[in-house]
Automatic annotation (TrEMBL):
<dbReference type="InterPro" id="IPR012341">
    <property type="entry name" value="6hp_glycosidase-like_sf"/>
</dbReference>
<feature type="domain" description="Carbohydrate binding">
    <location>
        <begin position="513"/>
        <end position="593"/>
    </location>
</feature>
<keyword id="KW-0378">Hydrolase</keyword>
<dbReference type="GO" id="GO:0005576">
    <property type="term" value="C:extracellular region"/>
</dbReference>
<protein>
    <recommendedName>
        <fullName>Endoglucanase</fullName>
        <ecNumber>3.2.1.4</ecNumber>
    </recommendedName>
</protein>
<dbReference type="GO" id="GO:0008810">
    <property type="term" value="F:cellulase activity"/>
</dbReference>
<keyword id="KW-0624">Polysaccharide degradation</keyword>
<feature type="region of interest" description="Disordered">
    <location>
        <begin position="491"/>
        <end position="512"/>
    </location>
</feature>
<keyword id="KW-0326">Glycosidase</keyword>
<keyword id="KW-0136">Cellulose degradation</keyword>
<dbReference type="InterPro" id="IPR008928">
    <property type="entry name" value="6-hairpin_glycosidase_sf"/>
</dbReference>
<feature type="active site">
    <location>
        <position position="398"/>
    </location>
</feature>
<dbReference type="InterPro" id="IPR001701">
    <property type="entry name" value="Glyco_hydro_9"/>
</dbReference>
<keyword id="KW-0325">Glycoprotein</keyword>
<keyword id="KW-0732">Signal</keyword>
<keyword id="KW-0964">Secreted</keyword>
<dbReference type="GO" id="GO:0030245">
    <property type="term" value="P:cellulose catabolic process"/>
</dbReference>
Length: 605
């Protein structure tokens, strides 16, 4: 047993995490299916469209197969295997993890019947969410939706290309023929995504309210290119990554969120890996800019950045109330692999230089362990947010199949309305335990309500669990805490790390975007001094800045001149771009000190 300071059995948690994916399976279940309360479902998927779309995964607690989060799930499971497959094998779980990946890639092969056609959804969220029904009883629409040259979806095709490229590496040594097939599909999908550009939710509009593409498709195109370079070593993909870094946002986005929508931090970590491995070739300077953004992510997560991810009183990284743990697990994976890259690879210097001081690998991994342990029960509530792990875990998970009696126990048909009237409102725990699922998790105060209708906190999703497989394998594969090879003497652990000496720091190139703040008016109301701050944002580059995103924190008053967006603030719609030398201005009013304003992302074209 590999245990952390909280006595956690990471190998057991890994086993349960992989088991969860068997509960999410759609299609004809195999003879070795271990989640026995499930049965075959979705057996006519694609039939109305003249294509076989049986298989794949349901994304969360519903019965829809959404292509974008499913592909991200497979990419992250594959990446975990590639980094920590040996540890998974030692825990006896490598075969199960590979089976989980293959269940997804088998479906993607079916969903890609022509080079420039990809089916991206089966079922639709609107009709499905009006129904509470086991997947085995589904009576809702199973219409399939696709992208093609007339209805493009570069983000969906790019993520699916990334998934199949990463998975090809998983199967390279054991099933080379299958790996070659995946790689062929991946190359076709990438070419399709790049040639016919557009956001997939403009083509598959029924996905927009559930998995809208807020970050656009630039990150997925770079993500796919990075994975294809990793899988093939073909220089054209590295050149694409370098040549399009500015135009597609890879060098411009500095963001501390990573998930099914925004892939920039993942791309940046992969690019940093190529650089550290000496695989950058003539593109080292550009990949260094990617690396700077990767290290912004690391510093921000561990609390040593210029801008840091907030934490709850109990220590959990916190982004949003609805399914916050998806960002905790995905960040934990990127932090884990980056810490390992910084330790193993030449050219890393053994750590990350942050504005708040050096982040050493042992510190990064200690922080990751704290996040995993929080999920597993080391939190103010003493609740494990992994279902089935420990004695205290969510019993009313928002999940159709788990909340209704198993079709194997009672095969009587359960209609949409019967599910809502008889099963959804039950106060008792679910009749089926969704082993290994990571639910949405607690709020910013570490509070959590275990109620089935509290979907923001009690619904689990495949993309919550997928990044955690690699992290749990890493921890399970290292005796004890998983940090022994990085530990300092006890007296040194709590000391501030001194700055590195005799080493020339790698400086990021100056930002092409300049931000200046000035106080333009001051007044006093009831003994409180208020300031009117004017902020000028100027494009100092010789190119045009598009899709500018700004971050604003410590804002305690009203703001005028920007629109709120998914990833911070954006210019008003009438100002879609800043040409060379142009500026935009916005103002805000608040008492005391100014807010913190920074650039989250942009594209240079």
């Amino acid at each position: 047993m590999a245990s952390g300071a909280g006595g956690h059995d990471y190998a057991l948690a890994l086993k349960k995490s992989i088991l969860y994916f068997e509960a999410q399976r759609s299609g004809v279940l195999p003879p070795n299916q271990r989640v026995t309360w499930r049965e075959n479902s979705g057996l006519f998927d694609g039939k109305a469209n003249g294509v076989d779309l049986v298989g794949g995964y349901y994304d969360a607690g519903d019965n829809v197969k959404f292509g974008l989060p499913m592909a991200f799930t497979v990419t992250m499971m594959s990446w975990g295997i590639l980094e920590y497959g040996k540890q998974m094998a030692a825990a006896g779980e490598l075969r199960n993890a590979m089976d989980a990946v293959k269940w997804g890639t088998d479906y993607f092969i079916k969903a890609h019947p022509e080079p420039d056609v990809l089916y991206g959804e089966v079922g639709d969220g609107d009709t499905d969410h009006n129904c509470w029904q086991r997947p085995e009883d589904m009576s809702t629409s199973r219409q399939a939706f696709r992208i093609d040259p007339q209805n493009p979806g570069s983000d969906l095709a790019g993520e699916t290309a990334a998934a199949m490229a990463a998975a090809s590496l998983v199967f390279r040594s054991t099933y080379p023929g299958y790996a070659n097939l995946l790689l062929e599909h991946s190359k076709q999908l990438f070419a399709f995504a790049d040639k016919y550009r557009g956001k997939y939710d403009a083509s598959i509009t029924v996905a927009r309210n559930y998995y809208g593409s807020f970050s656009g498709y630039g990150d997925e195109l770079l993500w796919a290119a990075a994975w294809l370079y990793e899988a093939t070593e073909e220089g054209c993909y590295l050149e694409y990554l370098a040549r399009n870094g500015d135009a597609l946002g890879g060098t411009g986005w500095s963001i501390n969120q990573f998930g099914w929508d925004v892939k920039y931090p993942g791309v940046q970590v992969l690019a940093a890996k190529f650089l550290l491995q000496g695989r950058a070739g003539a593109h080292a300077a550009t990949l260094q800019r990617y690396r700077q953004n990767a290290e912004f992510f690391v510093c921000s997560c561990v609390g040593k950045g210029a801008v840091n991810v907030p934490r709850t009183p109990g220590g959990m990284m916190y982004h949003q109330r609805w399914n916050n743990l998806q960002f905790v697990t995905s960040a934990s994976f990127l932090l884990t692999v980056y810490a390992d890259y910084a330790t193993r690879l030449p050219g890393s210097g053994g750590g990350v230089r942050c504005p708040g001081g050096a982040a050493r690998p042992y510190e990064i991994l200690a922080f990751v362990r704290s996040q995993v342990n929080y999920i597993l029960g080391d939190n103010p509530r003493g609740t494990s947010y992994m279902v089935g792990y420990s004695g205290s875990f969510p019993r009313q998970v928002h999940h159709r199949g788990a909340s209704i009696v198993s079709v194997r126990r009672d095969p009587s048909f359960v209609s949409c309305q019967e599910g809502y009237s008889s099963w959804y409102p039950r106060q008792a725990g679910n009749p089926n335990v969704l082993e290994g699922a990571i639910v949405g998790g607690p709020d910013e105060y570490d509070d959590f309500a275990d109620e089935r209708n509290n979907y923001e906190q009690t619904e689990a999703a495949t993309y919550n669990s997928a990044p955690l497989l690699g992290v749990l394998a890493r921890l399970a594969g290292s005796c004890g805490t998983g940090l022994e090879e990085y530990q300092l003497p006890p007296a040194a652990v709590n000391q501030t790390s001194p700055p590195p000496h005799r080493r020339r720091p790698h400086h990021a190139p100056p930002s092409p975007i300049e931000i200046k703040q000035n106080v333009t008016r001051t007044w006093v109301v009831r003994r409180a001094t208020y300031n009117r701050y004017s902020v000028t944002v100027t494009n100092r580059s010789r190119k045009t800045v598009r899709e500018l995103h700004l971050g604003v924190s410590e804002l305690r008053g009203r703001l005028w001149g920007l629109d709120k967006a998914r990833y911070g603030y954006v210019p008003p719609k009438w100002l879609p771009a800043l040409r060379a030398g142009e500026s935009l201005r916005f103002v805000y009013v608040q008492p005391g000190t100014p807010a913190n304003v920074w650039v989250t992302g942009y594209k240079l074209v």
